[in-house]
Design goal:
121 residues; mainly alpha; 5 helices; 41% helix; 0% strand; elongated
Length: 121
Amino acid sequence: MTDLISGQVQVMSVSTAASKDYVKAGTLAALAVTSLTRLEELPDIPTVGELLPGYEAVQWYGIGAPRNTPADVIDRLNKEINAALADLNAANNIQARLIGTSGVVMGSNRTRNHAGSMTSR
């Protein structure tokens, strides 16, 4: 990011979280976002899909636990994490941060199914 801002590199693909403040301040010029739809936080920035229909590139973050972690521990973690995500009154709310970076909170069943596919790799 430093090299992009200083002009050492001309183009870079970076996350919204890392770049949106620079774009809003006018320090960086965003060419496009890689999500399917324009971002609420950067509504004037087109999607790549507007030029190349069907294009989408996204990243995701997850919380994992070691293989063979007891089910009761996983269930407790799931319960506490979902409670934190649902707490809309918290000052540093996780869900608000994710939405501010074009993130989407996935439900526990979808996450569990995805995690199952990851463990087989």
